[in-house]
Amino acid sequence: MAIIDEQLPDLQVNIGNLLLKNPVLTASGTFGYGREYQAYVNLSNLGGIVVKGISLEPRPGNLPPRIVETACGMLNAIGLENVGLKRFIAEKMPFLRDCGTQVLANILGDSVEEYCILAERLSEIDGLAGLEVNISCPNVKMGGVAFGTNPQMAYELIAALRGRSHLPLIVKLSPNVTDITKIAQAVADAGCDAVSLINTLLGMAIDIRSRRPRLANIVGGLSGPAIKPVALRMVWQVAKAVKIPVIGIGGISSAEDAIEFLLAGATAIQVGTANFVNPQVSVEIVAGISQYLQESGEANVRNIIGSLVIS
Amino acid sequence: MLREIGRLIRRDLLTEDILRLTFIAPKIAAVADPGQFVMLRIGKSHDPLLRRPFSIHQTPGDNSIQLLIKVVGKGTQMLAEWSVGQDVDLVGPLGKGFRIEGPEPFCLVGGGMGIVPLLFLAKKVLQKFPLLRLPVFLGARSANELNFLAEGFNEPGVDLYIATDDGSLGSHGLITELLANQFGAKPGGLRVAACGPYPMLKSLAALCRRLDWPCEVSLETVMACGIGACLGCAVPKINQKGYAHICTDGPVFDAEDVRWR
After folding, report:
1. pLDDT, average across residues B2-31
2. Rounded to an integer, what distance in angstroms lies between the CA atom of residue B247 and that of residue B261?
3. CB contact under 8 A, A29 and B51
């Protein structure tokens, strides 16, 4: 008997008040401002897009070389190159507003005040479904990761932001800490709607012939399949430690990878570096999750979230 | 810009480390312009992870694309082991290619593996301007390296000028010197399109600036995505803050727009 539409599994998930048509988002910094992937992906098939991190003023980014491939991964030190708030609203939002999926803005600043201005301005415009607060970029000197490695600073930042925006707030966490659950608990206590993790792991590569670092920034963020086991472990730990939804990120390259994160407790996932390898991978993952649910006799993706069996 | 699963139909080992691969990829071949590139996935495994960018050498039969690849590392070594008939995951054609327009006569300058995209360009230029004499300057380390790279340029309309570092073929010396000797004193403008090693492009840019010739150069770098998302392929721009990106603003740039280091 042919499978009819009603039998397709329900893929919808909620992140606080934010309803996603499926649990697959694209990770900030790997999907541009959406338009870059329009030729490859029907964007409306995605659960959502998290756009490249936005700062108050445009940032030129770091000196090249900015990326280097490593075993099953890559290091990057882009340095948060972005068009800045004004141009983002004027030039990028018109396309994003009509792209057919939920759009989340990733924001970053050097001070609490900068984050607050960004959150306020972005909350005033149409078309954004939420904010992802980046407190975890390892590639800039100021701000960023400074907030992400100190629970008290993280708490104060998110508490301040909570008072300035009605949009769902997702806090993107750094793995470069001793105990990620401490930061997760702090931002949950401060009133955020969800946490997303992990950002890149700080790493390094050296050219032994020139004896120079391969990145101009010397160190950079490691991403890709190499970091997946670390990310999965952290997602599992954080999902147990907080009551708010967790969004899993880190080396997800296939539906199987995504399902591992869902089983570990992630309510949604983000696809990052894999977008570079296969520009269509995000929608392939959506289809693969649906197929897995059908094969497992699950009518609803929410049934498998956190369903890890530990005997 | 599209993703196409092509098929390897021909594989020629030109030297012990230079490979010529021909893929059936009709969708990409139909819209490719000279100077554009494809991102080629090496394998299905995670290592090596990233696609590799290769400029298009030519589009034989209009339904296939040909790449000329030098084996330099793990990824290209794996390509060298591919066999005819296998599928290949391509994204392309990407980037901004060479401008093919008048009024000045064209001149192509290539060095080493940078010669690769110029065959495609030469063919398109001669197609568009059939009555043109097209001077093509090709340089390499030695005759061994240059012989196969110069293959295909023996078209009617092409005036070939050759230089090698060791003098084993053509003039002994730099290709930019040969260009200056041949055309530097002649009246009238020349539109230069070039691809090659950075020092060659840099001295060519200086020569063209002195002679007031418009010059386009194709740059290369490591890139992760090839489509403007990763922002990894940054190159400093002159007269303006920040960086251009080789994958979307290039790989072909006006030489005057590059901050040569």
Report:
1. 96
2. 20
3. no
Optimal mutation site among A35, A43, A66, interface B, most CBs of chain B within 10 A:
A66
Q: What is the mean pLDDT of residues B151-160?
A: 91
Domains of chain B listed by start with CATH number = 2-94 (2.40.30.10), 106-257 (3.40.50.80)
pLDDT of residue A7: 79
Look at B230 and A29 and tell me if their CB atoms are within 8 Å.
Answer: yes
Closest-CA distance of chain A to residue B129, Å: 32
C-alpha–C-alpha distance, residues B64 and B73, integer Å: 26
> Would you state the pLDDT for residue B131?
84
Task: Say whether residue B91 is in contact with chain A using an 8 A CB cutoff.
Answer: yes
Domain count, chain A: 1
User: What string of DSSP letters covers B161-223?
Assistant: EEEETTSSSSEES-HHHHHHHHHTTSSS--EEEEES-HHHHHHHHHHHHHHT--EEEE-----
For position B236, what pLDDT does the model report? 87
| ipTM associated with this complex | 0.94
- List the single best residue of B46, B76, B240 to mutate versus A (max A Cβ within 10 A): B46
Q: Does residue A72 fall inside a structural domain?
A: no
- Residue A208 covered by a domain: no
Low-confidence ranges of chain A (pLDDT < 50): 1
Whether residues B230 and A276 touch (CB distance < 8 A) is answered with yes
Q: Are B58 and B67 in contact (CB under 8 A)?
A: no
Q: Let me know if A192 is a catalytic residue.
A: no
Residues of A in contact with B224 (CB under 8 A): 67, 69, 74, 76, 273, 276
Sort out which chain A residues have CB atoms less than 8 A from B241's CB and list them. 60
CA end-to-end span of chain A: 37
Whichever domain contains A21, its CATH number is 3.20.20.70
Q: Which domain holds residue A298?
A: 5-61+80-201+223-303
A209 located within any domain: no
Angstrom distance (rounded) from CA B169 to CA A273? 45
**Residue A257 domain-assigned (yes or no):** yes
Mean pLDDT for all residues in chain B? 94
Do B229 and A30 count as a contact with CB atoms less than 8 A apart?
yes
pLDDT for the residue numbered A4: 52
B41:A277 CB<8 A: yes
